[in-house]
Amino acid sequence: MIPGKTMRFRKLRIAWSVGWVVTASLLIVLWVRSLNYMNRVTWHYWMPNAVQLGTVPGQVHITTFVDRPIIPYPQNNPGYKVWTDSFENIRLYGGKMYWWFEASLKPTGVRLVIPDWFLIVLSATLATAPWIHCSKRFSLRTLLIATTLVAVVLGLAGYALRTR
């Protein structure tokens, strides 16, 4: 801690970080579980419109759609359903892991695919964000570290493009 300056909102920072670390841990558990099981939660907010949150290997799906069930629902009866399918049904689904984002817009609804790694990195970043002190000055060491990181990332990008 800097002498003469007190850390304001210390308990709030700790609570924020603990909350996002717990979120990251639960996302890791969900990611590992999605390798063997496909989980879905469907919420009918206004019949027949629905929102579905689902996990398949390595990704989270958020989908809005118009549900046309075989048995009609009672009028204006919102609710949710939760179900889990085994790994065999995932193979029928396709079982393909996505490492990047995907979005599709169809007349029946919208589908957004978010990779698990992004959600985990985002929650870990949000957990550490309050502890980073920004200053307007930087040292030569900081400049050398930043230059090295940029060179490594550009080198990896060049290698990835060359090996295609």
How would you characterize this protein structure?
The chain is α+β, with helices and mostly antiparallel strands and 164 residues long. The chain is 41% helix and 27% strand. The longest helix is centred in the first third of the chain and has 25 residues, at 10-34. It has one domain (10-135). It has a six-stranded antiparallel beta sheet with strand order 4-1-2-3-6-5. The N and C termini lie far apart (49 Å).
Describe the structure using short key phrases.
about 160 residues, alpha+beta, 6-stranded antiparallel sheet, 4 helices, extended
Furnish the topology, listing elements before pairings.
Layout: H1 10-34, E1 38-46, E2 49-56, E3 59-66, E4 79-85, H2 87-93, E5 102-106, E6 109-115, H3 116-128, H4 140-162
Antiparallel strand pairs: 1-2, 1-4, 2-3, 3-6, 5-6
Helix pairs in contact: 1-3
Main beta-sheet strand count, sense and barrel state: 6 strands, antiparallel
Number of domains: 1
Quaternary structure: single chain
Give helix % range: 40-55%
Spans with pLDDT under 50 lasting ≥5 residues? none
- Going by helix content, strand content and strand pairing, the class is alpha+beta
Question: How many helical elements?
Answer: 4
